[in-house]
Amino acid sequence: MRDEDQGRAEEQQAWQTRREQIAANLAAVREDIATAARKAGRDPSDVTLIAVTKTYPASDVRVLAGLGVLDVGENRDQEAAPKAHATAGLGLRWHFIGQLQSNKASSVAGYADFVHSVDRARLIPALAKGAARYDKELTCLVQVDLGNAERMDDDSARGGAFPDRVPELADAIAAAPGLRLGGLMAVAPLGAEPGPAFERLYALAMRLRTAHPSATMISAGMSGDLGEAVAAGATHVRVGSAILGIRR
Ligand SMILES: *Cc1c(COP(=O)(O)O)cnc(C)c1O
């Protein structure tokens, strides 16, 4: 009995410590976003924070939800699907931000509300089929290659369509039943200044908006470059390690 009580107390303590850690990191990230937004003459509330929870457990997703973060991002279906299942009912919006295979599109459509990484025409009918299967509307962003084909992390290539392919992919998404065109997404090129790359993304997004006025999302910026992204007009930043810690 004693041991059991003590075990429970320790668990409670660990949860409390983790919650405080995440809350402190989150406050700092929100402050950075607000500072960058104000400096750029933007309203901080125009920037949506997506917490990237890859490699971290569902319990952290629950902590984030308790702290008011309802937009969460994942980059691998195998990891995201069970995590979304384990946290169902919290009112979360799941953003799929990783390289996507057509054979995973249907699974992703089961839990995701946003897919940021559409960079090939072949994915579009696969996502539309998934949206129909779950009777939902899926918001899709075209991922743009801002000038590198390098790899990030271990297993996730950066991906993205070349800028000249954006219009045809955007048109195909907008025309697909069950899909809504959200806008554009990009990862800053490795080994280059992120600012100019994000400005190129912004210019592409403005051009896209003339053909698709409701495609207003610009998903750019991660822990290391969110200030540059917000300065260049990002509407959504995808932040993992600055909130949850360095991934191992
Ligand atoms: C992991 C990841 C992020 C978050 O990266 P951090 O550096 O941990 O903030 C953002 N976007 C994509 C596409 C990712 O894979």
UniProtKB/TrEMBL annotation:
Keywords noted in UniProt: Pyridoxal phosphate
Residue(s) carrying N6-(pyridoxal phosphate)lysine: 54
Signal sequence, start to end: none
SUPFAM superfamilies with a match to the protein in the record:
PLP-binding barrel (SSF51419)
Gene3D superfamilies of this UniProt entry? Alanine racemase
Against NCBIfam families, the record matches this protein to: YggS family pyridoxal phosphate-dependent enzyme
Family listed: Belongs to the pyridoxal phosphate-binding protein YggS/PROSC family.
Protein name from the UniProt record = Pyridoxal phosphate homeostasis protein
- Organism placement in taxonomy: Bacteria, Bacillati, Actinomycetota, Actinomycetes, Catenulisporales
